[in-house]
Amino acid sequence: MSRLPGRPLTFLLTGFSWLMLASLVGLAILVGLVRGTPLPHWIRHAHVHAALVGGVAQMILGALLTFIAPLLLTGRTQRESHPLLFVTINGSAVGMVAGFGLHNYTVIGISGFFVIASFLWIARDTWLQARQSLNAPPLNLWYYALAVLALFVGLACGETLAFGWAQQSFGYIRLAHIHLNLLGFITLAIVGTMHNLLPTVLNAPLSSPRLARIVIWLFPLGLAVLITGFMNSSVLIEMAGGGMLVFSALLYAANLFTTWLRSTHQGSAASDHLLVATFFLVLTLVLGVLVAANNIAATPIMPFGSLHLVAYTHMALIGFILQTIMGALSHLVPVTLAVRRVPSPKKRGPYLEHLTSVINRWRTVQVASLCMGTMGLALLASLTWNVPLSSPYVQGAMWASCGLLLTGLTVFSVKLVTVLWTEPDQTAGA
């Protein structure tokens, strides 16, 4: 692992550590909710912001530091370590968690300003690199630009909520805050990265760059229509925006799956996670449209409570975002460690091959347990339509889902630690 704080790999691994801690808290929240002993409300907010700010946002920062310079062909002139940026994003996450624990929204709001400052820095740095580069800005960079723009608007909504500047529109601003950050920032950043990352993992060209260009315009447009629906309290406009998002996600998924089908790749933990995550993205967006349709009638067709919201949101948070992160780490960590620890390309092969083989161990168990654990949350929520929470069926589904999710996370974490502790001299004879 990097010895210097603030290297891209440090952001990625620290962000993943935040995600693991947040996941354990999330499982505790689920157990408390199902067993009728819910944890304090602030813990849920702390859990969400620890996962999204300390975890996902920090990892996206690491990804931007990793990918932007090579995309613009300016990597050799850039610093490798960014300790101040590292301290800022982690301090912001700690501040938000502490703010929720202390019920102090001023602390939360100030922490949000530091998150904005972190991404303003990366935006400014990218702009300066783009001006110096002889390479035209690639398609991925436009995805990142739109993602960061959505983040700034989403964070502005968050600051409005934290400081109570528009209490009369609290519900609408909250919906805009959530969807701009999840769909606008995180999803667009992932989509932009995946158009390069999956072809790299598969060692095959992207099936259709034209479809990628269509998605870059269609997805943000659908998000804009969705946010308009929120602000106008119009479920029909929301559904129109959701329909555009579903269509763009289908184009995106078709492009990636066609790339996979045309490749000769035998499969790996990285490709398995990335392809499964793509499926969950489409599924989550389809479910979102159905949730909106359920709310059109004066009386919802199907009751929609806390557990149903947990199941729906975690299709995205675990099925799409976490699986994408695990797929990206499965590829990036071995490659990054091999490049850092073995300077000679001629001698790097055996070490990289060994690290990759470690990451690919038990990959079927790892991917399947996460998928079944995520779908188990949906089963758990659907059971409550017919039986009470105290039912052994509900309790059994809860413990099964928790066990499956923990299994997948544990297997991956153990392999990740093993890879980090494996030095080149330990595989010299392999």
TrEMBL record:
GO molecular function: cytochrome-c oxidase activity; heme binding
Coiled-coil intervals: none
Gene Ontology annotations for the cellular component aspect, listed alphabetically: membrane
One Pfam family it belongs to: COX1
Keyword Transmembrane part of the UniProt annotation: yes
Membrane-traversing stretches: 12-34, 46-72, 107-123, 143-166, 178-202, 214-237, 243-261, 273-297, 367-385, 397-421
GO BP annotations listed: aerobic respiration
Domain of life, per lineage: Bacteria
Keywords: Membrane, Transmembrane, Transmembrane helix
Stated name of the protein: Cbb3-type cytochrome c oxidase subunit I
Naturally occurring in which organism (per UniProt): Nitrospira lenta
